[in-house]
């Protein structure tokens, strides 16, 4: 997974893995504002030609690093991020159930967003 840069395009709600000038994977997310601020990953996608190179794991790791730097939790709805967090409890604290419910409510209220 060398030569991959991870960048946060907050305006687009995407954490992107970039290699050789192209996006090879990303996590789509939104920022929940209420009842508390949280990062909510919804989808993780890696381009087929780049699967099996650790890109999805690097994206999930960086998402939790962003969370740590900003002092806000992650409330994962993305199945991949949920599984990754279960395997890395040292860096991915369990999400608050209230935040998870609020994130699901937000997603239901914005059906065309993802």
Structural category:
alpha+beta
Query: Any idea what the shape is?
Result: globular
Unreliable runs: none
Number of strands: 4
Report the biggest beta sheet as strand number plus sense, adding barrel if it closes: 4 strands, antiparallel
Strand coverage percent: 25-35%
Average pLDDT value? 95
Strand order of the largest sheet: 1-2-3-4
- The N- to C-terminal Cα distance equals 27 Å
Computed over alpha carbons, the radius of gyration is 14 Å
Order of helices and strands: EEEEHHH
* Tally of alpha and pi helices: 3
| Helix content percent band | 25-40%
How would you briefly describe this protein structure?
The protein is of the alpha+beta class and 114 residues long. It has helices at 55-70, 79-87, 97-109; strands at residues 4-9, 14-19, 22-32, 38-46.
Structure write-up:
The protein has 114 residues and is α+β, with helices and mostly antiparallel strands. The protein is 33% helix and 28% strand. The chain has a four-stranded antiparallel β-sheet. A hairpin with a 2-residue loop joins strand 2 and strand 3 (22-32). The chain is globular and about 40 Å long. The termini are far apart. The relative contact order is 0.18.
